[in-house]
Amino acid sequence: MSNNTTATVTLTQKNYLAEAKMRNHFAVIDEPLDFGGDDNGPTPVEYLLTAIGGCVSITLRMYAQRKGWNLGKITVNMSQKEQLTPQGIKKSLVEEISFEKEVTEEQRAKLLEIAGKCPVAKMVKEATEIESKITI
């Protein structure tokens, strides 16, 4: 199966400001002022959190529509958690999902299972291989 999803990111000459192009869409990436950036856009980690939250919410909506469940608005709050361990700082992601409409305990359990099937979250959880090369 071939998936031709691509993104091109170009770091500009202005500190850490990067310009990204995905299909016909554009975005900027930057670091906050206290990390040497100019705070012109979200950080790469914030985009990762957004990508997972967006994917989870879309995956849940698709499933709920097939089941005929009206969940109303779906909100996914994503955050990065850092914990000091004897081995150093351990980073993890926290995902909190809520629905505008009430759901039963049975629906809640199934929706939590389906949330785990979001393709973007699976890429992160399964440590997707990245092939890196420098082109001329």
From TrEMBL:
The lineage of its organism: Bacteria, Pseudomonadati, Bacteroidota, Flavobacteriia, Flavobacteriales. InterPro entries: KH_dom-like_a/b (IPR015946), OsmC/Ohr_fam (IPR003718), OsmC/Ohrsf (IPR036102). Gene3D superfamilies: 3.30.300.20. Pfam families: OsmC. This is OsmC family protein. It comes from Tenacibaculum tangerinum. It comes from the Bacteria.
